[in-house]
Amino acid sequence: MREPEAEHRPVLDRREFVRLGAITTVGAAVVGSALIYDRLNPPANDVEGEASIRKLDGLSGIPSSESEDLLVRMQRELARAMAKPMEQRQWVMVIDTRKCVGCHACTIGCVAENKLPPGVVYRPVVTEEAGKFPNVQLRFTPRPCMQCDAPPCVPVCPVKATWKRKDGIVAIDYDKCIGCRYCLTACPYGARTSDFGEYYTAGVAEGVQRNDPDRPLDGARARYEELPNHEYHKKFSRAKHGSPMGNARKCHYCLHRLEEGMLPMCTTTCIGRATYFGDAADPDSLVSELIAKHRCQTLLPEKGTRPRVYYIL
């Protein structure tokens, strides 16, 4: 049997490559000009405004009967939960990994909300590459604190600075924490980090004009980095090397926001609507519906920690 002849492709020399690039550039300019002209001179029968927005099919996994924005629903359910005593509400988070686009908006929103310094991250997004070339895809897994029902970080603390609240949140008392980092070692998820007192702007602004009070001078810190944060509904200032410097730090579901009737920052900033938060003690809540409808999984169930963060795969 005669072997098929190998495909021969002409090799472009430098002159041909430059000519091809010029043709491509001119073609793109012509198309761009046509598009601009078309936008500036729309046909008379073009539909404008809200009528021009194409309606998309409902997202899988979300009840099709939803008549209100999911954030609005979760906000309403949050108000209902906060009206109950603490022991009657059980906070959980559901993350739909099918909808996470890896934008890291939740990570950045958390950093801004809690004024996190370098090296301290409450909600990293783990990126995993699956498949073999050319069939390769990326999977993204946000990983906040699991708020475990059997948290291994609690019993190892020698000063009882961390504990499990009645509403399910694992909290830290920065004023008690001695920075031994036993809890960091005990957490199988790596959800705890230590605040070593670093600043993003320290040492990067030499030569800044001295008449600009809002920018660091000769490597000093920017003023915004010394503003206090309000974690655990308290006021903590790092300006004089106070707490939480030297402490263990972790996600706490934005407890200070919950007590003001606001959802966690990661939930509100998720552009893919992949993060859901609510009261699992409420059978009518969105998180309860999602957990009941899907075969949700938790991370490292073999560790026996009983996490409160559920993943839809």
From TrEMBL:
Keywords: 4Fe-4S, Iron, Iron-sulfur, Metal-binding
InterPro entries linked: 4Fe4S_Fe-S-bd (IPR017896), 4Fe4S_Fe_S_CS (IPR017900), ET_IronSulfur_Cluster-Binding (IPR050954)
Keyword Acyltransferase included in the entry's annotation: no
Alphabetized GO MF terms: 4 iron, 4 sulfur cluster binding; metal ion binding
Domain 4Fe-4S ferredoxin-type stretches: 91-110, 168-197
Protein name per Swiss-Prot or TrEMBL: Molybdopterin oxidoreductase iron-sulfur binding subunit
Annotated organism of origin: Sumerlaea chitinivorans
